[in-house]
Every structure is written in C-alpha cells, then in structure tokens.
Automatic annotation (TrEMBL):
Gene3D superfamilies: Endonuclease/exonuclease/phosphatase (3.60.10.10). Residues 53-236 form the Endonuclease/exonuclease/phosphatase domain. It comes from the Eukaryota. Signal peptide: none annotated. This is Endonuclease/exonuclease/phosphatase domain-containing protein.
Length: 301
C-alpha cells in the first residue's frame, strides 16, 4: 500500500499502498474481497486514512467484483477501480481526495490485457498536471500483457509529472546494479530505462524482495518514501510517500481538521483510556467501526 502527499500535504497512495489488498477474513491478496464492508481490513484502512489524512491511496490485488459495489466506497474520496474480468483475484484501485480535480485516463493500448489504471490530477496554475498510475502485474503474466503495459507506461511517461506505483512481481531485479536474472525482468528494466524513469523504493516490501515499486519521470517529484506496517493480514508492507507538487483543490466552505497541527500523542492517550473490550462486546464489525469512529471523532475535538 502506498500513501503519499502533495506539496507536503498528506496524500495517500497504497504504495500505492501496494501490498496486495484483499478484504476478506482480514486477508490481503489471498482471499476474495467480497465482504469488504464487514472486515477488519476495511476498518483498518479507513482508520489509517482518517488518522493520516491521505490524499491518495493506491491498492493492488483488490479481488473486487460487482458484488462489492455497495461496500468499497470511502467518505471524502473518489474511487477509481479496475476489477479483474473472468476469474478471481487481481484488480487495482485508487482512492483520491474528492477535493482534488481529477479524471481517469484511457490510453487505448490493449487496456483489457493489463491490471492498471491511470488518473490525471489537475495541478495548480503554472505547476502542470500529475499523472498517477497503479498497476498489478501477476507473477505469471505473459509477454503480450507485458508489452501492452510497457506501451501504456511509455505513453504516460510523456507527461511532465508521472508517478506509477504497484506490485510488479520482479523479485530478481537488483535496482542498485540495474540488473536482473530473468528475461521478463530485464525487459521491464529496459522499459524503465527507455522512458527515463526513476525507481524510488529502497527496501524490500515482502519477505526480502522488493516487489512494490514507486516510479517517477521527474527527479524530486517523489520524496519521504517510507515502509509502514502491513494492512490486515497482508504479507506486503505499505509504502508511504509524498508527491512534491501542488495539486488544484476544489474550493469548499466545509470546515475540516488540520492534521498537520494535530497532537497525535494526546489522541492516542485519549483513545487508550477507552475500555474497548467492554465498548465492543457483542458487536459486529460494522457496529464496532461506528463506535470506534464516534470515539475517534470525539477525541479529535
């Protein structure tokens, strides 16, 4: 999972978050996510977003389908998603702060072959727009789908500012030496080099392997890259980063909290005083989330 910030304003990108996110039985990337609304993984995600105030959250391996439509929305965010068709697993999603002006891009290059989606986020006047992409490349993906993905990356790389995140499943790549053992991994490195992309993740994200990557075509565009804990039962770490470019925000008269000035130590202390075992006794996941959210909002005041 990746999480990010625009111009030092928290943006959440599931490393896009990028740990494969599957929301059933608290599992990430191993089970179907059809019961998203009632799982602790969903609650964990919403709690994380509520506390950190991310602008953008990228997710891979959603395992979503049409039966999840009612349950995957998140208040304050616009959801872009691309579900795998015809079989279980896979899928990608982007949650974007609904105050940001954005639109989905269709690059028109065999999109049905790839598990990727692209969104243009409007930049402030004079700053230029930002293209954000999220991708899941299955370990067994064939050459045809790889080539389609490379064409999409090439088209998106022509933008002034590109941030691409995702699980690319190339564990054999040594980014320090720009080398790889397998042919498909070397082809991916060629794509990265041909499009002058920089890979900014520096630590392993799953069992010693660097599977989850953040790529950009502009030096200095992405900063403060950090690995966070896993979401739910995922065995991938979340990736948090900042997009150091101002984005255009819609004007709103709504009063919102300024998380940059929050006393998180006090917030944790206030929440720690609540007898959670008693407060949540006999409650289901949805009721437990509503009770927790109520206490959280009260503590924020």
């Amino acid at each position: 999972m990746a999480q990010a910030c625009f111009n030092n304003m928290p943006v959440s990108v599931k490393m896009y978050l990028t740990p494969p996110l599957c929301l059933e039985n608290c599992c990430i990337s191993t089970k179907s996510a059809c019961h998203c609304a009632s799982t602790s993984a969903t609650i964990t995600l919403e709690t994380c977003v509520c506390l950190q105030g991310y602008d953008l959250i990228g997710i891979t391996e959603t395992w979503w389908d049409s039966s999840c439509d009612w349950s995957v929305g998140m208040e304050g965010y616009r959801l872009f998603r691309k579900d795998r068709q015809g079989r279980q697993g896979g899928g990608v999603a982007l949650y974007i702060n609904d105050q940001l002006e954005c639109m989905e891009l269709h690059l028109g290059m065999d999109e049905e072959l790839t598990e990727s989606l692209w969104v243009r986020i409007k930049g402030r006047a004079g700053a230029g727009d930002i293209i954000v992409g999220v991708c899941y490349r299955p370990p067994d993906q064939g050459d045809q789908a790889d080539e389609a993905l490379y064409r999409q990356i090439g088209a998106a790389s022509h933008s002034q500012a590109l941030v691409l995140m995702g699980d690319f499943n190339h564990p054999d790549i040594c980014w320090r030496d720009n080398a790889a053992e397998h042919k498909q991994s070397r082809k991916f490195l060629e794509c990265v080099d041909d499009n002058f992309l920089l890979q900014v993740t520096e630590e392993p994200t799953r069992r010693g392997a660097m599977l989850d990557l953040v790529l950009t075509n502009k030096e200095g565009l992405v900063g403060d890259v950090k690995l966070k804990g896993s979401l739910g039962c995922s065995d991938h770490k979340m990736v948090e980063f900042r997009i150091l470019r101002a984005a255009r925000r819609a004007h709103s008269k709504l009063t919102t909290l300024d998380f940059r000035r929050a006393d998180f130590g006090l917030l944790r202390d206030l929440l720690g005083r609540i007898p959670w075992d008693k407060a949540l006794e006999g409650r289901g996941a949805q009721d437990s989330w509503l009770i927790f959210k109520g206490h959280l909002l009260q503590a924020q005041e």
